[in-house]
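Sanity check

After download, print the first record. It should look like this:
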Amino acid sequence: MKGQGLHRKSTKTSAGSRVLKLPTFAVDMLKTRTKRSLSSPVFPDGNGSWRDPSNTSQDLREARGSEEFAWVTSHVFRKTCATILDDEGVTARQIADVLGHARPSMTQDVYMGRKGSDVKAAAALHRVLGSAINVHKSYLDLCS
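Expected structure tokens:
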């Protein structure tokens, strides 16, 4: 509220409050930024104080530039993260844990793109049905 300073909001669900294991490059960057003082913000505003989220959104809008990139929002980075993890074979449950979703179905429905048919599906069908079809085909060949 105006005139009351910044207030930290709680997360939407208990899954939102979590400890994340970060990639090494992120840990290294955070260590560099926190050498100043452990009590100061890691990403301060221009005065070294806590950042207002609306100012961060404005900074992102300025950084992305033209209207051609208006689709680039902070939410896009969450979807990109989910896509990278999905492409690397991380399970929907694990991706949901990273994004702070209580239900993997939410992660799959909103954050993970649909893919074309996977070669694993074709291999499984061939493994289970292929020999039966070959036996049937051989029988038909004998009858003709």
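If your output differs, re-run the checksum step. Summary of this record's structure: The chain has a mean pLDDT of 82.
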